DNA sequence: CCTAGCAGGGAAAACGCTTACCAAGGGCGG
DNA sequence: CCGCCCTTGGTAAGCGTTTTCCCTGCTAGG
């Protein structure tokens, strides 16, 4: 594993010398400048660069050009399919634009998020995409907004996924409307009494979905009888359902978990409690992560085009998609976990 | 959404002026240098920096210091739980070391991988972690090795996850041994005749697992009767199982899919084909992604500590973990998808 | 044939930082 | 009380690029 002593990387200077031209010419030859360079020279430079395996130092370019090709992405947790799907969209779009993605995880901690924004700002990314979940009670929200405003005032662009609560661009998710539509769909299937597993209070996404769901139920004359609020994770969903079971599930026909990973955990809790999801009690989720096609019964949910969301967030930040672009298609997908009820 | 005209970002120069000290002093005050700076001065500088909301330009630091704080991560597809778990580990470890992760996706294309390595090299990352799956027949493998060697010769460090096929550091996964152990475990449960869903030929990871599995079976006197080789994805797993069903599943007691996402797809294919996984035919996978606890029946698999793998890869590249560190715990996890057989 | 204009190469400044080197001041040993 | 050394602030060089500006040598028009 031991290698030759470290030699310095090949610089443009080396290429220029090798090609027998000036630094300026080498620079112009290697990346489209407005200036034309003689074909013979260009050839020589390109050949020299290839021979030396030259790779331009992006930091140096950034500092000379005053602009980078970086986009920064902040998620709560990349291992969570919701975020990893979004991240995939961002990465794909970035790639198609020749941009490089740097990623950090807030671990659902607002303090950390602020620190990370500060740190990432040092990169002078062209764009920052914040996908980590907003909270209502976030004490550092103001500081975050200030930090981001400072970032934007120096030419950066911020895009939030879901609501920013401040004046930044955002890919708005139809959390409320989705919850509402799901409620109506379930009522239409014959369900009348519901419980919900909601995710810790204050998480905007969770709250909106829940509020929409409740509104949808009420508009149809159905009721949301119980709500538990565990963690916004698979294990939270499991625990939430356990709690519902412990408190007595009688009379509850369907349980809505505000996201799919929780719903999936909830179904496992049901099963471990000796109940059959979709038979003893219906379950529905939100997001339509890939997994839900493969659990049994397949999960009814609200589809969010997650990858598209990531892609859109980047486009939006780059100023390519209008702020008023077509809204993202959100759609209730009914599957076996909520069979029609006699 | 329109904001003030873009003003230039605050520079160290501004901070120094604001604090009434020299550039050098400001620099020394703001980041641990070997030199001490008078407390009064330090205070002034810190205050000025805070007042101006100064954020050091990382590119400039990189170029001045001759070293970055970046680690580059290459995965096949971040939306795949295998990679997203690994990425989570890398990100977490990087964070704890004050490093920033830049990520790119090869989309399972060796050409793209090479391009990405070239592009990422421009960042002068401290470390490059390659998690994208190696292939045996890869025509650009040599070019890749050359590129990486060049990168290492200028002080970079490469770490592969799984075998590099070349002289780079690597976190070796016990793919073969894991497959073998799984085979033995299944035989011990009473299974005798098997099929496998293998992932396209040439993918080293898939081939190793399969070879290990086959070896394990043979050493126990059992047989691997059929092998199909669809894509290395969930849909590949589904298609693979469909093919097995179409060709007739009679006599096959258990199916091994070389990774969990394929296994999960395969179980769905079984179910859609009117068969019950774990009852009509047993199914086992490899990786132990979180999902497999929640499918029905829960999936028997070989656990890989994915997040730990990501973390280790980074430590290894940074030279913190010995090359000969304790091997990663790989363990067969028997669940309901492979019930003991009479 | 002369000159205005343009094409294109090269020198050097600039980008925002770090750090080697210099210089000045203060403490301390003899 | 003198000289040294140590401490610490400042000056300036340097990192690898891009880009402005200058300058030369052609071309083309009159």
UniProtKB/TrEMBL annotation, chains A, B:
Domain HTH lacI-type: start-end pairs: 10-65
UniProt keywords, alphabetically: DNA-binding, Transcription, Transcription regulation
Domain of life of the organism encoding this protein: Bacteria
Keyword match Transcription regulation: yes
GO MF: DNA binding
Protein's recorded name: LacI family DNA-binding transcriptional regulator
Organism: Agromyces allii
Taxonomic path: Bacteria, Bacillati, Actinomycetota, Actinomycetes, Micrococcales
């Amino acid at each position: 594993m031991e290698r030759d002593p470290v030699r310095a990387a090949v610089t443009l200077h080396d290429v220029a010398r090798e090609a027998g031209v000036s630094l300026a010419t080498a620079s112009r030859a290697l990346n489209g400048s407005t200036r034309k360079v003689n074909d013979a020279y260009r050839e020589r430079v390109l050949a020299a660069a290839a021979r030396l395996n030259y790779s331009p130092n992006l930091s140096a370019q950034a500092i000379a050009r005053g602009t980078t090709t970086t986009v920064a992405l902040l998620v709560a947790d990349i291992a969570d399919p919701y975020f990893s799907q979004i991240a995939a969209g961002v990465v794909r779009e970035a790639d198609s634009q020749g941009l490089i993605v740097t990623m950090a995880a807030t671990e659902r901690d607002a303090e950390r998020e602020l620190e990370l924004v500060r740190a990432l700002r040092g990169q002078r990314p062209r764009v920052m995409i914040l996908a980590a979940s907003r909270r209502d009670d976030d004490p550092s929200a103001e500081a975050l907004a200030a930090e981001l405003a400072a970032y934007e005032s120096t030419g950066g662009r911020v895009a939030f996924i879901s609501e920013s609560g401040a004046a930044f661009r955002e890919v708005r998710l139809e959390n409320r409307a989705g919850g509402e539509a799901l409620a109506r769909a379930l009522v239409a299937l014959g369900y009348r009494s519901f419980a919900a597993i909601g995710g810790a209070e204050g998480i905007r996404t969770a709250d909106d979905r829940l509020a929409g769901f409740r509104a949808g139920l009420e508009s149809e004359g159905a009721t949301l009888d119980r709500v538990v609020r565990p963690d916004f994770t698979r294990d939270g969903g499991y625990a939430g359902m356990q709690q519902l079971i412990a408190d007595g599930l009688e009379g509850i026909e369907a349980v809505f978990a505000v996201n799919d990973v929780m719903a999936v955990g909830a179904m496992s809790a049901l099963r471990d409690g000796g109940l059959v999801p979709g038979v003893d009690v219906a379950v529905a989720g939100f997001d339509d992560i890939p997994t839900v096609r493969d659990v049994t019964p397949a999960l009814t949910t609200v589809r969010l085009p997650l990858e598209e969301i990531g892609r859109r967030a980047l486009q939006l930040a780059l100023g390519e998609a209008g702020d008023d672009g077509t809204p993202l298609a959100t759609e209730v997908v009914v599957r076996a976990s909520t069979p029609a009820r006699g």
